[in-house]
Write a structure and sequence with these properties.
homodimer; alpha+beta; Jelly Rolls; Arc Repressor Mutant, subunit A; 4-stranded antiparallel β-sheet; 9 helices; elongated; DNA-binding
Chain lengths: 221, 221
DNA sequence: CTGCTTTGGTGACATGGTCACTGAAGACGC
DNA sequence: GCGTCTTCAGTGACCATGTCACCAAAGCAG
């Protein structure tokens, strides 16, 4: 298998050749289909995964069927933390799902440990990944605890809206924000009443991004 | 300064002598008074702290004055993550406060890096600490997003109730759970109406721990 | 076209958060 | 002791959010 992927990893491209060699020879590139559950309750993978291509969504499930997206792992980021985390403590109700078809490099734990011990750059890379996750989680907590739903929804629409169109069902948006579908439906109805959006089944067309950004508090930026 | 503290650190007592030596000689034991803000917006300490004695509360503040406790760092645990985290990314609205008088070992980042690279046991210790924090945050998110307030308050009363008495104001309980004082007052009034507790200024006496545990869902345990 | 599944809409109600204000309990100075 | 001040707790009105039950419309499969 080619070791090209090492060079696409942000933060890893300047590693010493010796480290790159270890990464390239002792990892295995694997592919998974969109929708695959990569880890979940009672199911942590043996190896650590570095995501080379695609996106992984990490979400928390509740008994009553509600769910919330905790964060996403993008290509070029490491999945390390999630797996290390679930390994260290008992299995948990969070799960990671391939949001697209994905490609990943699987690295045995022992190799990961070697790399941590031998490369300062690798350590920086891994600790940055952890830090990023934790600040992501801080943001999520701040949002659910203190922010109004209309504002959170406006922010989400802007974040998802590529080319002014959001392709998502109300249920999916509810899961993103950890709320109920009806709440999303009502908020979107209100947005539509103000002519900020136009809804059709499964898609939301953003008509007035300015007003939405103003509500989201993103106006200054 | 004595290096006794190394032996009190869970997970560190079996480190190679060489590593213990580094910890003992290259760290500095410091003390802080109860209430000291250890880190906060725009204020990350230079060194990493290992908490030797006392408790540190890490909380998130909102603009409107509301707050929520994210987790606590106990003696014998590492503060590493919080500081590493705040270093890696821009300053954030979370802060760490000494909940008691505390004693800590301050370790320069370079020494920390040396230790990580040289000791497998130290790596395990640090990664376990990170993992613990992340699972703590998962729990907080699950709670705020999905759990009813009466249940959360019941759990908190049981967790805080030493000898059947909780010494806390309604405002403090509200901050623990990330809600408003009025909400706590109403819930406690209801608990009192059911003769589960008896309230007086600043303290709550638990009269019927069984009923509270039943509400909290802790009964089976 | 017909029936099925998914998606979205709605009203009624329960819970939680905000605001404005009140009163009670302890702290402090005298 | 007595007044004053500050902190803490109680309350009603109102708005925001979550839950439940149910219906209607849009797409899909046969």
């Amino acid at each position: 298998m080619s070791d090209d992927w090492i060079f696409r990893f942000q933060g890893l491209s300047r590693l010493p050749d010796r480290i790159k060699g270890i990464l390239a020879t002792r990892s295995q590139v694997i592919r998974m289909r969109k929708g695959t559950v990569i880890f979940g309750p009672g199911n942590s993978p043996e190896n650590l995964l570095f995501l080379l291509d695609g996106t992984v969504r990490v979400q928390q499930l509740a008994e009553n069927g509600r769910e919330i997206v905790l964060y996403r792992v993008q290509a070029g980021e490491s999945c390390v933390m999630t797996t290390a985390c679930l390994l260290a403590y008992e299995d948990y109700s969070a799960e990671g799902v391939a949001e697209t078809d994905i490609t990943a490099a699987a690295i045995p734990r022992t190799v990961f440990d070697d790399l941590i011990s031998q490369s300062k750059e690798f350590r920086t890379f891994v600790f940055s990944a952890y830090s990023r996750r934790i600040t992501d989680l801080f943001h999520v907590i701040e949002d659910i605890a203190f922010q109004r739903m209309d504002i959170r929804l406006a922010q989400k629409l802007l974040a998802l809206g590529q080319g002014g169109v959001v392709k998502a069902t109300h249920q999916q948006l509810a899961a993103e924000l950890g709320t109920a579908r009806e709440v999303i439906s009502r908020q979107l109805s209100e947005f539509q009443r103000r002519d900020w959006i136009k809804q059709s089944r499964g898609t939301i067309e953003v008509l007035d991004a300015g007003s939405i950004a103003r509500l989201a508090g993103t106006e200054a930026a």
